[in-house]
Amino acid sequence: MCVVTLLCLPGCAELSPHFFEGINEQPKQMISRQILVTLPENLKSDWAIIRDELEQQNDILISGEFPLASIGVDCIVYKVPEQESLEKALQQLRADNRVVLAQENQVFEGMQSSDSKSYEAISYAPKLIHADAAQRIATGKGVRIAVVDTGAEKGHPDFKDQLLDTDNFVDGSNYAFTHDRHGTAVTGVIVAKANDGKGIYGIAPNAEVSVLKACWYPETSNAKAQCSSWSLAKALDAAIKKRARIINLSLAGPQDELLSKLLETAHKRGISVVAATLEKQQQPGFPANLSFSIPVISTGPDGKISQPAWLPHFPGTVVAPGVEILTTVPNDGYDFVSGSSLAAAHVSGIIALLLEAKPSLLPDQVKGLLLRNGKEKSATPLLHALDAWAILQALDNGN
Questions:
Q1: Which of these, 95, 98, 239, 341, has the minimum number of CB atoms within 10 Å of its CB?
Q2: Tens digits of residue pLDDT in 97-114
Q3: Is residue 267 located within the same domain as residue 191?
Q4: Cβ atoms of 229 and 253 closer than 8 Å
Q5: Which residue range is the domain that position 41 belongs to?
Q6: What is the number of domains present in the chain?
Q7: Of 42, 30, 5, 23, which Cα lies nearest the Cα of 232?
Q8: What is the rounded distance in angstroms from the CA atom of residue 83 to the CA atom of residue 29?
């Protein structure tokens, strides 16, 4: 008997609750007479109480709520009824000593000219890891990467003419490839077309990518994709058969004996296993916790990392950009997406560059190069964003 286990995608790009419907309706984020209110981290245990009290005390209506972890606040959206004064509501909220900020929900216009070159200028990640310099040496040519994830929009402008193939291991979900946001975002980080003057550029734009769909959105209203042992086992088996050199697993879940065996086999056959981690949990999750995998945590343009509690126990962890990453999304689009899923994709791209430069590298050698991050062999691994250029230079110097 095969026991089915569900796994989740950490740091997933989320779908709107009504992704497939109401396209012509005005988004709730654009409705007039809305006020944004933030509450501080030190009042976190009382956020729900304060939220309701502010609504009652100021004759306003709750429209939405979301945390802003980067600045340590909870953001609540209130709608001011037509019969009430918006300015008065703002003044009252600003006078409340529990409120950090209160402001009107303002509207901005995109300033795009007809001669816009691309999104490259606002995409910090490739520059942070010096992928632009590294691509003078290698672009991933001849290296196959298996992206085991949701599907990806194969017809996206940044994927056209790329070496991209797809397989589906989820029955009845072929239509979802054009709506699969997570896999599209991950694939874009790795293989988006370079120097086309249109969108972003991937870390290994000439790699051969197999998008193996093992994850799906159970309902259009469900924000997170799910995978099962069944579907993942089939996808991993296909990756091994396709002779991939890298398996990108931007997902995490419980320990799984069947999948462990498949991944161990992949490792023994020369395949590097790159895994996203659960950065806010007590453990990194499976398969990141496997001794031979390459667990990845995310950083932003400032180079800071989250320092998860499990980090000291997993010295083989590497760091890559995963905060506000500009990447590909369905419907020929681009968006900023965050999470260790995107960080893992950057690492898979860097490994593809290494394997083009030296195809004989074994997974343990690849992992060692990443951990040294271009430093001498005796250097203590430091948790800094990977430097693709330095790692390739170290490869040339025999380190």
A1: 95
A2: 999 878 676 532 211 222
A3: yes
A4: no
A5: 28-104
A6: 2
A7: 5
A8: 21
